[in-house]
Design goal:
This protein has 166 residues and is an alpha+beta fold. The chain has 5 helices and 7 strands. The protein is globular.
Amino acid sequence: MPLERLAAAWRESYVTDVAHHGGAANGVCVFCRLADLEVSVESGVIARGDSCFVILNAFPYGSGHLLVLPRRHEGELSNLSESEFGELFVMIRRTTAAVERAYGADGMNIGFNLGSAAGAGIPQHLHAHVLPRWAGDTNFMSSIGETRVLPESLERTWQKIRAAWL
């Protein structure tokens, strides 16, 4: 069966950025650029702590896909300080709870892709993915059509998560 193509021009900037700069533009990591921005729908920052923050995934696998990451530019989980490590996992827990409240999903994927061989798009700045899942969310489009349909804008995702954040 031949692979069908679906135009996704909105991904061009992501693919170009990662391929040429490893997620950095003008020598600055995309996550580091977001690390000090205010919580707002424009920035995509959902919440922040002393050493970690939560953002929308600008190129989500599905609605409600968030990233939790340290503010400090670090690619290795083992190189985080004890306080960074602790806050990172507290933020993952808080993010998971907010996603559950906002979406009422049947399940949740939570994980890290550490290193480019593991699938990390930006391996120089580690980040955890938090992604709600539903029974039956793998349908014809993803199973046969190899395409994801996102029924929600990033702005709406931000609004839902912020409303559910405690």
